Amino acid sequence: MSDVEADKQSSAPTRYAVIGSPISHSKSPLIHALFAAQTQQAITYEAIEVLENDFERFVGSWFASGGGGLNVTVPHKERAFALAEVTTPRATLARAVNTLSLDSAGRIVGDNTDGAGLLNDLIDNYDTPIGGKRLLLLGAGGASRGVLAAIADLPNKPASITVANRTLSRAQGLASDFEGRLEIIAVSYDDLQQHEYDVVINGTSASLGGELPPLVPSLLAPDCCCYDMMYSAEPTLFLRWAKEHGAAKAIDGLGMLIGQAAVAFSLWRGVEPKTAEVILTLRPKA
């Protein structure tokens, strides 16, 4: 039974939540409240602090008591992947889960909507599909893995995919994990000197800490789009670098945050909310 069908049999709205630690900073309750109002869905959504040693117990209790889906954030995404009884192909590739629900058989299903949220933001809000483009992904951690898992589902894939990382062996390991699904070129930052890219995605958190990978301006092709998966009130160091060196577009991760939430909302409720108006609501006014 879907959450929407269950709502029809109950006067109480279905409960949803995001769980993590820390969690007080989360924008997810506001985002899902805006989605619910936009789509006229009767739900509640809260942010709940759950410590690592209590994760499995909490999830079991949540679903046993009739709770709807859960969003999962740090530090629980890998534990959610291990806990899920069924995982979607993109979650299996990502080896991380940020969305939990129950299927018709009562099994816990894990999905990863992070990469889909980013790609949807690029396409829907910035008219920047990555099909046929030369893509550079900075970093070989979990954030980059989630993006690659979503790209693996695209019918129109990039012309080339390059993953650059400070430690080359990590990039090579990531490329190996996707062998048979994506052809990935693994390089160190020193290897970027002689190449141009149409889309550059920063999957590291370095710029939030005032650091920047050792990048050269020559890697930015004409009309290059630079996307930082991180989001802060002020432009990140990576986005400032991109603008200073002529990137046609420099986009932060707010749309990805809202986009991944929209994919989760759609999975739970069977209706797709529009993200553009929510981005405008959450974007700090100049």
From TrEMBL:
Name of the molecule in the record: Shikimate dehydrogenase (NADP(+))
InterPro entries: Aminoacid_DH-like_N_sf, NAD(P)-bd_dom_sf, SDH_C, Shikimate_DH, Shikimate_DH-bd_N, Shikimate_DH_fam, Shikm_DH/Glu-tRNA_Rdtase
Catalysed reactions, semicolon-separated: shikimate + NADP(+) = 3-dehydroshikimate + NADPH + H(+)
Positions annotated as active site in the UniProt record: K77 (proton acceptor)
Family statement: Belongs to the shikimate dehydrogenase family.
Pfam families: SDH_C, Shikimate_DH, Shikimate_dh_N
Enzyme class: oxidoreductase
Function: Involved in the biosynthesis of the chorismate, which leads to the biosynthesis of aromatic amino acids. Catalyzes the reversible NADPH linked reduction of 3-dehydroshikimate (DHSA) to yield shikimate (SA).
Species: OM182 bacterium BACL3 MAG-120924-bin41
Domain called Shikimate dehydrogenase substrate binding N-terminal: residue spans: 18-100
Enzyme Commission numbers on file: 1.1.1.25
Sequence ranges assigned to domain Quinate/shikimate 5-dehydrogenase/glutamyl-tRNA reductase in this UniProt record: 131-207
Keyword line: Amino-acid biosynthesis, Aromatic amino acid biosynthesis, NADP, Oxidoreductase
GO molecular function terms noted in the UniProt entry: NADP binding; shikimate 3-dehydrogenase (NADP+) activity
Origin organism lineage: Bacteria, Pseudomonadati, Pseudomonadota, Gammaproteobacteria, OMG group
GO cellular component: cytosol
Binding-site list for shikimate: S26, K27, S28, T73, N98, D114, Y231, Q260
Positions with a binding annotation for NADP(+): G139, A140, G141, G142, A143, N165, R166, T167, L168, S169, R170, M229, G253
